[in-house]
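Submission checklist for the structure archive. All mandatory fields must be present; incomplete records are returned to the submitter.

[x] Identifier: Tetratricopeptide repeat protein
[x] Organism: Allosaccharopolyspora coralli
[x] Residue count: 125
[x] Sequence attached
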Amino acid sequence: MSSETTIDAFRKAEDLVAQRRPFEALRKLEPVLDVEPDKPSVQLLLGRACFFSAQLRRAERAFLRVLELDPSDHYARLVLGRTLQRQGRLREAQTQLRLAATMNPDPAYQEALGEVSARIAVEDG
């Protein structure tokens, strides 16, 4: 796959994820993964597509790979936290969301952390 073709496939996959068409995005992304498996942006897009298609374990692996490559990626921590939350792994989610909110004080990050923390408080009762 040429560099231009890889870029085009990646952009098409991004558009498909934005349109909430994750299965189509995954099909477009497969050849990109063959060429650029260790590129954080490719793994992040893979994780997002997997998240939206409820392939939560695969999404988790992709987000963890992003963090191996770039531990300072606050967005990867946010979506990893959301992925763990959807799996019911609230304490792990809280840890990732707390880190993300510390790294980037965006209100959406604080809201995600608050949501998980409230669920933990209710469960602990």
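[x] Structure attached
Curator remark: The chain has a mean pLDDT of 96. The helical segments are 3-18, 22-35, 40-52, 56-69, 74-86, 90-103, 107-124.
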